[in-house]
Design goal:
By secondary structure, the chain is an alpha/beta fold. Helices cover 40% and strands 15% of the residues. Bound molecules: pyridoxal-5'-phosphate.
Length: 310
């Protein structure tokens, strides 16, 4: 630990390149994918420019944009709480000055909803010739997806030159505390990232930890299996309690609360259960519950049922 970390993350990128079937030249590592979101905005936007995303999209896009004095255009979501690509497309076509970056989380956090292959490729095809903006596909939860029509994009950014993909090791690998994420993009985009990022943005411990984790395919499978079972358990319990929920492709599920979610959130806190309130997103009667170990899931559901008295 007396030496600086490898600034090129050589071994990690090599391993990921094999795993993902992309050249390591197309990969850049970040201190969590949050750093890469921030970096993309700082590289490709100037103060006064805008980024485009959806209402109820992962909030980091807007927060990073704000810090860079960049505007966020948010396209409303419908009742299904999905990215509305048709409205997004209409807005892009109407814009006199197009946004510099379009952020699409697939699946999205906190809604858990996803875009199908058909819908997404239609969108990417329509804009594949555009050089004035990048389309950033944030795939933080891709490993958990059960939907059969989920798009696989890793081998597609050669065809779609303006496509950038973000991945994270915080979710399925359970390494949130180590802070490692990855960006996959054209050599040009990767080159810009390498010029602007801090040289030692991913520390030695994170690099070694990740290398070991990437070998541990059994953990990965268990993590995915545990998540599937946890989600099914939540769905079942929500149905029994008569709570509306949105089917999720992530490791959490969004549900609607019968009264102000903040009050329910506070009651749950007293029972030692922390759910995610979504008031910062403008969702005041919704909570997001993450999948944990079976006993944690049980405890969370029991606490919720007590608080709601159902
Ligand atoms: C958790 C999350 C991230 C960021 O993860 P890092 O821990 O910074 O790698 C990015 N996008 C989405 C949609 C997330 O939910």
């Amino acid at each position: 630990m007396l030496r600086y970390p490898d600034p090129s993350a050589y071994h990690v990128r090599k391993k990921l390149s094999q795993l993902w079937g992309v050249s390591s030249e197309n990969i850049v590592m970040g201190n969590g994918s949050n750093e890469l979101i921030d970096l993309l905005i700082r590289i490709f936007c100037e103060p006064g420019d805008s980024i485009l995303t959806s209402q109820y999209a992962f909030i980091a896009y807007k927060i990073c944009a704000q810090a860079a004095r960049v505007k966020t255009i948010e396209v409303p979501m419908g009742e299904d709480l999905k990215f509305d690509l048709r409205s997004i497309s209409e807005l892009i076509d109407r814009c006199e000055v197009p946004p510099k970056l379009i952020f699409i989380a697939n699946p999205n956090n906190p809604t858990g909803t996803y875009l199908s292959s058909e819908d997404l490729f239609q969108f990417l095809d329509k804009y594949k010739e555009r050089e004035d903006f990048l389309i950033v596909l944030d795939e933080a939860y891709n490993e958990f997806v059960r939907a059969k029509d989920y798009p696989h994009l890793l081998d597609k950014f050669k065809e779609y030159k303006n496509l950038v993909i973000l991945r994270t090791m915080s979710k399925v690998y359970g390494l949130a505390g180590l802070r490692v994420g990855a960006l996959i993009g054209t050599i040009e985009v990767v080159d810009y990232c390498n010029r602007v990022r801090n040289p030692f943005n991913v520390n030695s411990l994170a690099l070694s930890g990740l290398l070991a984790a990437l070998e541990d395919t059994e953990f990965l499978e268990r993590s995915i299996q545990n998540n599937s079972e946890g989600l099914d358990y939540f769905y079942d319990q929500f149905q029994k309690m008569g709570l509306r929920y949105w089917e999720s492709q992530g490791n959490f599920v969004l549900f609607e609360t019968p009264r102000d979610a903040k009050l329910i959130y506070e009651e749950l806190l007293k029972k030692g259960v922390i759910l995610r309130p979504l008031a910062p997103y403008g969702l005041n009667t919704h909570l997001r519950m993450s999948v944990g170990l079976p006993e944690e899931n049980l405890k969370a559901i029991q606490a919720l049922s007590e608080v709601l008295q159902i």
